[in-house]
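Hi R.,

As promised, here are both runs. First protein below:
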Amino acid sequence: MEDEDVCIVGIYPDGTVYINDYHAHEPSIPHLDVEEGGTEDWLLVDVSETETATTATFYRKLVTADPLNDQPILPGVARLVWSYGEADPTDFDNIILQRETTGVVEVVLVEP
């Protein structure tokens, strides 16, 4: 991941929900926006979990007040990178390395 805005959402076994805003400046492990002088811009609307899936609804502004770490969401095709694993992460410093399944999908988030 290079120059990517990253949102990580989940539910721990005790029911605690987490949502964090990250940024990757180069192909490497992303860093928390707030640790780099940025802001937490993703807002969680809903999250649920079954034995086989976690589903989350979340959003952020198209253009945030964090120009250092957030890319604007522009009209047209956007590339979304997704990832999931069998268990909740135990080490957020190595979160991307813990995901077993990843992929990329191109979607239109804002009509041109």
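And here is the second one, sequence first, then its structure tokens:
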Amino acid sequence: MFTKFFIKLLKKDYEESRYNVKKRLKSILAHDRLAINSNILEKMHMEILNVVSKYVELDPKKIEFSVETDNKIKTISLIANISIKRIIYLDKV
């Protein structure tokens, strides 16, 4: 019984790790296709976060940026997944 649990646990970790590596590789390839310097991309991320944080309180542990390509329609997308803790009311801004 313990062995089955351990095997399931390792398999789950392997699948999650594999998914994360695949996702990172796609992101690296997309960055290469964009030909954007990593410093510029990081600056874009910071500027986006600065603007968004004027209106909402962000959870810094749950912020993720990714770059995805769609070869069918020849587009590259910058995707920001930003976790919001609470809304800052406009009268305070």
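A quick note on the second one: Residues 2-92 form one domain. Let me know what you think.

Best,
J.
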